[in-house]
Design goal:
With 213 residues, this protein is an alpha/beta fold. The protein has 5 helices and 7 strands, in the order ββαβαββββααα. It has helices spanning 62-79, 93-105, 151-155, 162-169, 194-212; strands at residues 20-21, 27-28, 86-90, 109-110, 126-130, 135-137, 147-150.
């Protein structure tokens, strides 16, 4: 039977994993196993880390040097982002350089130019559009024929916002089976739904930040 691989950013624990599902009874959608502790990665987790690149200097051993090049090329192929027919928002100079470096590996080049290096006239944030014919344009408009991404998503540098984190954990309605019916976050409290609970937590966080300032 043929095999397939799904490449995702490795979560720090089950609570923030995109493969977790379930409200009162969280479970893993890959192997349908119950998750009893959302704050860890269990030893039965189906996610397997990718091997690291070989960064050693094997000179003058040409055989080992060639083996390392093939090894690294295989890993890059697995991780490669297909940029064709995409629009990508780059917020910083650093994101722009990293994305264009990846685009150059895939054979892209600026429209009417023969290279894919950062342009001196670029201003950020910017939207880069990658076409099917391997052309790249800047200051692009997002059309219905292109898939939109943020560079931080593709490069694996995007951090979870406070709201995203709260929305991930807010469905854990059973707080270690303690009797917390007086808590506004308890699902048995009719005065607050879980949607309200999200806003309650955000409000408390904002108030706390004001106190710190």
């Amino acid at each position: 039977m043929s095999k397939s691989a799904l490449v995702i950013n490795t979560p720090k624990y089950c609570a923030v994993c995109v493969l977790r599902s379930g409200v009162r009874h969280p479970f893993c959608r890959v192997n349908n196993r119950d998750i009893t502790d959302l704050s860890i990665i269990p030893d039965w987790c189906p996610l397997k880390p990718l091997p690291e690149k070989d960064t050693k200097n094997h000179f003058p051993d040409e055989f080992e040097d060639g083996y390392a090049a093939g090894w690294n090329g295989c890993i890059e192929e697995v991780l490669m982002i297909d940029l064709r027919n995409t629009c990508v928002l780059v917020r910083t100079k650093e994101e722009n350089e990293m994305l264009l470096k990846e685009a150059e590996k895939q054979g892209f080049q600026w429209h009417t130019k023969n290279y894919c290096r950062p342009l001196p006239k670029q201003h950020f944030p910017d939207i880069l559009k990658f076409y099917e014919d391997k052309d790249v344009t800047r200051e692009a408009h997002i059309g219905p024929d292109s898939t939109f991404y943020e560079a931080s998503e593709l490069l694996g540098t995007k951090e979870m916002t406070a709201r995203e984190f709260i929305e991930r954990i807010a469905d854990v309605s059973n707080c270690c089976e303690r009797e917390c019916i007086g808590c506004v976050l308890d699902n048995r409290n009719n005065s607050a739904t879980w949607i309200c609970a999200i806003h309650v937590i955000l409000k408390l966080a904002v108030e706390k930040l004001k106190e710190v300032k």
